[in-house]
Design brief:
The complex is a heterodimer of chains A (about 280) and B (about 80).
Chain A lengths: L3 H13 L5 E5 L5 H4 L4 E4 L4 E5 L7 H16 L4 E3 L3 H13 L3 H7 L5 H18 L3 H27 L3 H11 L2 H13 L4 E3 L6 H17 L4 E7 L1 H12 L7 E9 L4 E8 L4
Parallel strand pairs in A: 1-3, 5-6
Antiparallel strand pairs in A: 2-3, 6-8, 7-8
Chain B lengths: L3 E4 L4 H7 L2 E3 L5 E3 L19 E6 L2 E5 L2 H8 L4
Antiparallel strand pairs in B: 2-3, 4-5
The chains are: A alpha/beta (about 280), B alpha+beta (about 80).
Chain lengths: ~280, ~80
Amino acid sequence: MTSPLDVDIDAIHRYLKKSGVTVIFDVDGETEATAVGSLYSWEPKDKILTISLPVAHTSQRKKTAVFKIIRKIHNDGGLLWKKSKSEVLQTFGEYQKEDPDQETLEFFKPILPIDDFNALKLSMFLRYEDKKGNKNNVQRFKNDIRNRFGDRGGNIANLCTAGYFDEELKSLYLRIPREEFKEYYEMVVGDKARALFIHHDMGVDEIDAEVEKMFLKATKYHMGDFKIHGKGADNVKTLREFIKSRTGKEKYKIHIKYEDPKLPAIECIVNVLQTD
Amino acid sequence: MKPRLLFTDKSLPFILEAFGKSINENGIIIESKTGEPVLTPEGEEIESKQLGGLKRGSEIFLKDDLYSIMNLSEGKY
């Protein structure tokens, strides 16, 4: 005699044969299906097959049957993926299809060290999400880049978001000898000598200390200027306070080059007045 | 298009059990039989909370960070 479990398993296998099915697997809580003793529910419009298994109250026979289903999906080449990260995976796929940064990435592919290039690719995606206004993802992605590629990766993300790769670095590569570019690139990416990015932990004193360090780097590299970027209401406010607190007696002069009140964001140029 | 399975965080131990894996006292995913840690294609151990998913070939365990998602999307695994 065919048991209700066998009936459910047969039905699940039939649904799995359909193209483009998403299986959602859960072991928590009661669903409409589990309330009536069924193992699954089927949503035909989006082809979603939900398998619910309250593990604590489930027989070993049922568990073994579900193990087999899971392994079959895997063996047939289907991806098993964490539900809470499915949106990121989908968004990354959409970004790849759209491929808005292809030109810049193709340009830098033969130029950059492989880790820097991978950090740049991820940073381009971060920027894409940032432009779409997905702020929650942006900080998480930046942490991912920093965890994988260290402080250097974090700097690449900041530089990429501020447009340094599309503009300054690209045009410079086309204008100067390769060795010179390499040195300049290391100065910008490795030594962070070209731009200071204000983050939320920084107060006016911290900005002051960092600007002093930037000033010394500018002196070391014989640069006439460097930039400060502030993005987000708090960072813009702190940066403005820092600018206001300047006495005019510093060895540098700051002026705002660009501001976007909508984001909000400001970009400052710091001109080095004295390099001796 | 092949079916894909999305699992909830709570169902992770069950998914791992289906493949003979479990989570040790340090939160690392291990082979249940030997206690050996499962490694990503990059040779890294995986904390259970960092697991993104599992891909065929034969069993490729992936982290859930952006780098792994990029490589997965680019078909590098």
